């Protein structure tokens, strides 16, 4: 039986995260993979990235930073991926692999990857390719149900709370809009496990055509649930009964800090190519970040009974921000800024307020006020 993984998304993050873990597991003798990487939208001719995934020599991931107080600077040639496909151009081939070979699906389709377009998401006997990722996944799942009905584990890595639940809901809605076949929904509930996960690793630079530069720190937390299992065993993969502590620490300390710096960068005429490390070399901005954590963020965690964990995570986060080897561009961090303010700042303020935080959080509230939440936002 195949243990193939289909990875939706060609991002440098997944190259240095999930695919990296699978590579190390394979090197350790585990029977996992290989991985088929799928470009979800657009033509593969736009870049050489999709074709480059077929290189049997793999691609480089450079790990640079500090681990356990010691410098780390090593290159790993990742060979867990054996092909790249475009969903648009190679739909028939992708459909066959998905229906017959896949055992796991991994996705990281960006900040708005679960958006659907009902008027362009049709699928059926004409074998047209739906526009959105959830509709593509729904069409492929219908093909698998009809072809083999084998169980499947889906591990979404998009950074949103309840990502597996939200993705499943979108898939079900897409299937229903396309005259969902009788029996499909029952099979989906019984045999397809949509996991909820949290991922964490700063992947600061791309290497062309594929490859990445990343920090040593990495986490892939996966919530226990019926049918859910990780694709491999790895020190950075954690199975947990509760994702919320991991989510809150990452979203409301590391990611919130990134969004705070992006807000400063956008509004205060900073250099276009400025990095996290460079902006924090400005003593005034470093003091503002330290004050934000101390006066606004930590009281919110303390009110929720996570004060000690948050203090430790703030220290780790600042070490990661100041990694002397990584050039993490704030221009990259600032993409989809409004959506990030919603998930990282608005959500934190709601959480802290409900717990009775001792801080009014004036700086965070000022940022949140500039980006009011839309009523239609999830």
TrEMBL record:
Positions in coiled-coil regions: none
Residue span(s) of domain Mannitol dehydrogenase C-terminal: 242-357
Protein name as catalogued: Mannitol dehydrogenase family protein
The Mannitol dehydrogenase N-terminal domain, residue ranges: 4-224
Molecular functions per Gene Ontology: oxidoreductase activity
InterPro entries named among the record's database cross-references: 6-PGluconate_DH-like_C_sf (IPR008927), 6PGD_dom2 (IPR013328), Mannitol_DH_C (IPR013118), Mannitol_DH_N (IPR013131), NAD(P)-bd_dom_sf (IPR036291)
Superkingdom to which the source organism belongs: Bacteria
Keywords: NAD, Oxidoreductase
């Amino acid at each position: 039986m195949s243990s193939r993984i289909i990875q939706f998304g060609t991002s440098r993050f997944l190259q240095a995260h999930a695919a990296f873990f699978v590579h190390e597991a394979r090197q350790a003798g585990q029977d996992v993979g290989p991985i088929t990487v799928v470009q979800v939208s657009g033509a593969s001719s736009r870049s050489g990235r999709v074709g480059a995934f077929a290189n049997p020599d793999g691609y480089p991931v450079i790990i640079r930073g500090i681990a356990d107080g010691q410098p780390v600077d090593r290159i790993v040639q990742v060979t867990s991926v054996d092909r790249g496909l475009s969903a648009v151009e190679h739909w028939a081939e992708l459909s066959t692999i998905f229906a017959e070979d896949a055992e796991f699906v991994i996705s990281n389709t960006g900040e708005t990857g679960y958006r659907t377009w009902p008027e362009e998401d049709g699928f059926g006997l004409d074998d047209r390719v739906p526009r959105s990722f959830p509709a593509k996944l729904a069409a492929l799942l219908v093909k698998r149900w009809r072809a083999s009905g084998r169980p499947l584990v889906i591990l979404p890595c998009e950074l949103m709370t309840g990502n597996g639940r939200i993705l499943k809901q979108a898939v079900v809605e897409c299937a229903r809009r396309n005259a969902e076949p009788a029996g499909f929904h029952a099979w989906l509930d019984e045999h397809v496990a949509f996991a909820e996960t949290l991922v964490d690793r700063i992947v600061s630079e791309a290497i062309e055509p594929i490859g990445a530069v990343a920090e040593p720190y990495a986490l892939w937390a996966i919530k226990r649930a019926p049918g859910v299992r990780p694709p491999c065993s790895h020190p950075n993969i954690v199975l947990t009964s509760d994702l919320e502590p991991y989510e809150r620490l990452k979203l409301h300390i590391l990611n919130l800090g990134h969004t705070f710096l992006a807000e400063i960068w956008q509004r205060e005429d900073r250099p276009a190519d400025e990095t996290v490390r460079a902006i924090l070399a400005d003593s005034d901005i470093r003091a503002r970040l330290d004050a934000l954590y101390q006066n606004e963020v930590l009281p919110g965690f303390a009110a929720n009974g996570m004060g000690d964990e948050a203090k430790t995570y703030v220290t780790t986060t600042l070490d990661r921000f100041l990694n002397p080897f990584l050039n993490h561009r704030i221009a990259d961090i600032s993409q989809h800024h409004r959506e990030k303010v919603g998930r990282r700042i608005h959500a934190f303020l709601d959480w802290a307020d409900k717990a009775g935080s001792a801080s009014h959080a004036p700086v965070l509230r000022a940022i949140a006020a500039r980006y009011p939440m839309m009523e239609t936002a999830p």
